[in-house]
Design a protein that fits this description.
By secondary structure, this protein is an alpha+beta fold. About 25% of the residues lie in helices and about 45% in strands. The chain has two domains: about 110 residues; about 35 residues. The strands form two sheets. Strands 4, 5, 6, 8 and 9 form a five-stranded mixed beta sheet that branches.
Amino acid sequence: MRRITPSVLGLALLPFAQATFATVGVPVLVPPHPVAGQLVQISVGAGGCDAFSAYPPTTVTLTGNNIRIDLSAVSTINPTCFLPFGDYVFPVGSFEPGNYSLQVDRTYLGGSGLTTETLAIIPFGVAAIATIPALDLPGTLLLIILLLGVSVRTRRRRDFAESADRF
């Protein structure tokens, strides 16, 4: 019997090897068109060899209208890549009306220490809350007078109908 060398065995098992891959999706703004005071979040898909973690906590910095969120990530070089696929949602904050630029970074421990990558720069606008018009003082007084007039007229018609029934 011949002795099988490791390289021949490796070539024989090559078709049965699983492909390993890392997936980090493009960050998406949630909601896509926020209004003032509404919570803005980022949703990012990841899995395979990459995921996001809760420690160290996510940091958000605001400088003028420029926002930066740094997401703590895990990236493994394990050949079997066991991290589950899923969407990760991170709160950014709520903002006043205006135009903003959101830079989404991820920081993970790589082969040469901490590595920070920019995943996206997302420009977005925050709209003002639509106001519902209300009556001012003259409009309110006019509405009261009209309602009193309608109620007096209805009362008179009812009284007249009742007196006509008596005769």
